[in-house]
Amino acid sequence: MAKFFVNGEQVDFRAAPDTPLLWALRDQLGLTGTKFGCGMAQCGACTVHLDGKPIRSCVTPVSAIEGKRVVTIEGIDHTSQGHVAKAVQAAWVDKDVVQCGYCQSGQVMSAVALLRENPKPTDADIDRAMAGNICRCGTYQRIREAIHAAAGSLRKA
Amino acid sequence: MKPQSTTRRRFLKSSSALAGALVIGFWLPETRGRFEARAQPQAKTPIPPNAFVRVGKDGSVTVLVKHLEFGQGVNTALPMMVAEELDCDWSRVRSDLAPAGPEYAHTGFGMQMTGGSSSVPESFDQMRTAGAQARLMLMQAAANQWKVKVDQVHTARGFVIGPGGRKLAYGQLVDAAAKLPMPDKVTLKKPGQFALIGKPMRRLDSRDKVTGQAQFGLDVKRQDLHTAVVAHAPVFGAKVRSFNADKVKAVNGVTHVIETAHGVAVVATSFWSAKKGRDALEVDWDLGPVAALSTESLRTQYRQAAAQPPADAKVARKAEHPDAMKGAAKTIVAEYEVPFLAHAPMEPLNCTVEVRGDSAELWVGSQFQTVDQAAAAKVLGLQPSQVKLNTMLAGGGFGRRANPVSDYVVEACEIAKQAKVPVKTIWTREDDIRGGFYRPMYVHRVEVGLDAQGAIAAWNHVIVGSSIVGGTPFEAMMVKDGVDPTSVEGVADTPYEIANMQVTLDTTRPGVPVLWWRSVGHSHSAFVMETMIDELAAAANKDPVAYRRGLLAKNPKMLGVLELAASKSGWGAPLPAGRARGIAVHESFGSACAQVAEVSLEGDEVRVHRVVAAFDCGLVVNPMTVEAQVQGAIAYGLSAALMGEITLKDGRVQQSNFHDYRVLRLPQMPRVEVFLVPGGEKPTGVGEPATPPIAPAVANALFALTGKRVRKLPLGSTQSA
After folding, report:
1. SS3 of B632, please?
2. Which residue of A lies nearest to B630 if distances are taken between CA atoms?
3. What pLDDT is attached to residue B21?
4. Is A5's Cβ below 8 Å from some Cβ in B?
5. Nearest C-alpha in A relative to B253
6. Which of A72, A53, A51, A46 is nearest to A132 (CA)?
7. Interface mutation target, options B393, B639, B666, B673, chain A, most CBs of A under 10 Å
8. pLDDT exceeds cutoff 60 at B300
């Protein structure tokens, strides 16, 4: 049994310890905002924050996160970094970033992590931070614009 | 609602019971435009009413969108068309995906579907009419209440206004309006009168999609829901000889092991248990005839057939003077090759099925609701009307979810039928990449004869590849004289004025399942046509834009985007050292798109820095979405042009996931500038037409940079030529 925290609440996970965090979130906890895209840390659709850092939940077994704090797209607004998440989400809506939207939970989680570390990212910083998140609809240009816009709105706030 | 047996009165009655709402339904039995030829005959019997608009007592307006929303923006564009005529408050408009139902049929194809970049064009009149009918009924209800004539009232953003400034909110009129007969005739606004259509409007689904709340097929939750993961054949067409599930049963959570027509499914209480169960499964396969297939052997076979078409090859376009080639002063011959391509939508394929005795319910992000509903019914031994198909948001599709043989839906139904529990069948990414239904591999061989002045005197074009609709229920409807139009579109019907063009098609049957992939035949034909035209411009020592201009004199749409892209890109102006431009222009789905790509080489790697796209899609409904679709279509086409390829060896697909079926990532995304040609009376296609030009634009830029012609995709192919 693994114990960890998801969006501030303690979870006692009783299924197989090799279960990836992604499937613990989706199947056991019903948190389906975190998406399955590849299962091998290639696409970033499953990005969540573990102790504040973005990780790929599809390759992170629950046995490896004992006692740690997981934040998902459902909880990101309510953390101490909620203002960053809200700025990112508002910029995403304002720039009309999403198309199918399936990858966007992961994109938002990666962007929030970037802006928390780096409040004024350059294009090269954005390239590095977002290269692991695939979008097949090709919303990349608007993602870049939205990250700059969110950074700008956070500086004003 | 049971549309088959419901009269209008009963319909309205039952629908007003539906949360006290005014529900507007109607039918528009006309076909038009490019769909006319392919449309199935419309039923002569009275068409049952159907529902597109619900006005709630609280003044909310819900538009039921009959298409699949998978990124292209129908969840916003269709409500805009309704709201334009309904004259409601846009901030109160929501959209829902309609389930499968005959009332939601495509006005051109006669079945419910999403494809061919047709969603906005085919529903443009239908949705506006629905809005206008609802508005007129609300006006009539208000007029009745005020005892005035309907022409004495008008509307303003969700209110009916009467003489003396009296006003009633739409929500207050819902009950009275629901009792009125449906107006037969309404007058629609002219484009000059539009208040909403043509304005950049943000999507209605953004908030849900950036907060993780949007419900995709994969997110369906049901009581006692199980998950199935399937061991698919390692080689296309292979059959299960036997299997050993001893180790599977040891996996905690596994409940069933079920043989299907094409594999063995492991059903469990969670995905991870099902996946582990599948990994523990031992299947003995009868591999069949495809086990010897390789891309290399196909290439040899296709190239031979292109050089010497077999006797049963078909003529898709006949030259006026077949002997013209003999009189040519000079000939140019080029051979082109494009690979199989997987669609690889972000959301892996999935379908949830719940069987309950004499009915069943499906949840699936389907592009082909009618086809999938019928296929499910057949597997389950039910009538289509006994199968409720709920359309879920889909995480991309690009054609993969429009399968005439409903592969993943049929499989999910086979599993649920045997398991006798609700089951969500989930494909892994490996299942998706290796699961077939690819854009076909093609070889083109083009021979162009030039006269003494360098003008085109004859054009012999041979296309070799498999037919998308061949062997499917669509074959009878679409294949004419042995020619699948999707194999030759963009070549045989080229908008260029080319004398003596002969197009020959050799349809192959390699045993690899194929399917439409964003822009279908144009995904390869534009690459061939536009790189060859570029080559001919160089042979004639002419500027690529000027040369195209000469061949498009009678096509203002193509000419318009060509000139616009050239001027906005600064065509002809100097670039920094190491950079070059290339242009391509192509017409598809009723729209024309020209693109200028700026490229450089970093070692062997092609970098695309900037793309200027000029797009004529007729009347623009939502420019904000159109711009996004052009950007996205270019990104999708660039993935394929730079690195997309599915290859086979010993019958096995060599790629499996995003590490070896590589796709465009953010750092590789060029800056895309989109310019829309204004005007137009009717909308034409948006989702696909910007994909075809990008590969040839990049290839032509590389020629300008290096002097070498690109005749094979992808540019970064791991395969030798």
Report:
1. helix
2. A138
3. 59
4. no
5. A15
6. A46
7. B666
8. yes
Residues of chain B neighbouring A56 (CB-CB closer than 8 A):
none
Residues A16/A79, Cβ–Cβ less than 8 Å = no
Q: How many other CB atoms are there within 10 angstroms of residue A122's CB atom?
A: 10
- State the pLDDT at residue B41: 34
Reduce the DSSP state of residue B31 to 3 states and report it. coil
Least confident of B172-176, B234-238, B576-580, B650-654: B172-176
The residue among B70, B204, B211, B610 with the most chain A CBs within 10 A of its CB, best to mutate, is: B211
Query: B425 to chain A nearest CA, in Å?
Result: 14
Length of chain A: 157
| Pairing relationship of beta strands B263-268 and B330-338 according to DSSP bridges | unpaired
- The whole-number pLDDT of residue B29 equals 30
Report the residue of chain A nearest B222, measured CA to CA: A30
Bridge partner residues of B263 (DSSP): B232, B260
Is B221's CB within 8 Å of A30's CB? yes
How far is residue B427's CA from residue B431's CA, in Å, rounded to a whole number? 6
Whole-angstrom Cα distance, residue B458 to residue B494? 14
Asked whether the beta carbons of B578 and B600 are under 8 A apart, the reply is yes
Instruction: Please write the tens of the pLDDT for every residue from B220-241.
Output: 999 999 999 999 999 999 999 9
Provide mean pLDDT across the span B426-443: 98
Average of per-residue pLDDT across B153-168: 97
Range with the poorest average pLDDT among A17-26, A63-72, B135-144, B709-718: B709-718
Q: Which of residues 39-68 of A touch B (CB under 8 A)?
A: 39-40, 42-43, 45
